[in-house]
Amino acid sequence: MAVFADLDLRAGSDLKALRGLVENAAHLGYSVVAINHVVEFKEKKQEIEKPVAVSELFTTFPVVQRATSSRVRLYDIVAVFPKTEKLFHVACTHLDVDLVCITVAEKLPFYFKRPPINVAIDRGVGFELVYSPAIKDSTMRRYTISNALNLMQVCKGKNVIISSAAERPLEIRGPYDVANLGLLFGLSESDAKAAVSTNCRAVLLHGETRKTAFGIISTVKKPRTSEVDDDSLPACKKAKCES
Fold first, then answer.
1. In this structure, what are the phi and psi dihedrals at residue 150, rounded to the nearest 5 degrees?
2. In terms of DSSP H, where are the helices of 6-45?
3. Sign of CA dihedral 109, 91, 143, 21
4. Contact criterion met (CB below 8 Å) for 110 and 85
5. Torsion sign across C-alpha atoms 151, 152, 154, 159
6. pLDDT at residue 217 tops 60
7. Rounded CA separation 95/90 (Å)
8. What pLDDT, on the 0 to 100 scale, is given for residue 70?
């Protein structure tokens, strides 16, 4: 059974409203949600708010929290929202982040290029598309589908997640409805389902690895000489062995 996730629920000052947002997501079938704290750096040495503690929302409920801030260790997922081609290239190739968010509220000011996206995929960085703006406005719906299709032409559906960016309960849709929406974004049926399940889990694991792992060792068992098939020996050597 797939575990569905929505990694973009917008945090607000009203904890009661945020609690209702999480409860509505759980009612729709999501097992994992992330509380998104968005910070726009307009001033130097700008103070960053701390994430909402789970104990402030529920007594026992696993909530993954997320932010686009420099206090990396306080958050489980770190995402960036590049608005220029240069920043997008840097985010894909160099920044130590888990998600690169794709704008859906306006037409992209640049074209996606294959090299930086391939680097991001190799690094395990995900690409996030949000669908709630498409619910609110027909113009944003057109931009959402257009930008999503442009992304799919390059990444081929790899490492893509679909989130709600919901601020109110009515803006969240069920996981199967979101998977069907992924078909409009150019995803295959399997990739659309992965965009709300396995790809989200990969992002969570990437965030955990980013905070804890300093290196990875891969070991491969080398076959013994006796295990080598006789067919791999030359015919002349095989004849001598048999004699």
1. -65, -40
2. 15-28
3. negative
4. yes
5. positive
6. no
7. 6
8. 52
Provide the whole-model pTM. 0.61
CA distances, 66 to each of 10, 59, 117, 126, 163 (Å): 10, 20, 22, 14, 13
Q: How confident is the model at residue 159 (pLDDT cuts 50, 70, 90)?
A: confident
164 in Cβ contact with 132 (< 8 Å) = yes
pLDDT (average), residues 2-25: 76
* CA atoms in the 13 A half-sphere facing the CB of 150: 16
Token couple for 144:
């959402």
Average pLDDT estimate for 139-148 = 85
Residue 192, both tokens = 């659309």
Reported as a single tens digit per residue, the pLDDT across 93-139 is: 888 888 888 887 788 888 888 888 899 888 888 899 888 888 888 88
> Rounded distance, CA 237 to CA 41, Å?
72
Q: 203 burial class (0-12, 13-18, 19+ CB within 10 angstroms)? A: buried
